Fold:
Amino acid sequence: MGDRRCVIHGPKVTVPGTASCGFYVWGVPHPAGTETKFRVTPEESGLVNREVRCENCTWVEGDMDRCGLYRLLNQRMPGVFDLDTHIDKHGCCNAQQS
Structure:
């Protein structure tokens, strides 16, 4: 079944295979027990143990093909955001909210 640990969270945080986070570290995965020079808390990485597909999000609109969060950001801050609101309902979003 594996170690159920993530090197960026350290040895005391259990990370099940169903979990997801918004923190991406480029490179080759390290084997279990590898030490790292930095650590982040689950809150800092956005670690959640829930479905993060667009079809499960409170922001999904239309026939599950549009992101209401992106639409709102485009409307409220057009000088900052120009996001494509079209989504794949099976896509994964690290800003997803249940």
About this structure: The helical segments are 42-45, 68-76.
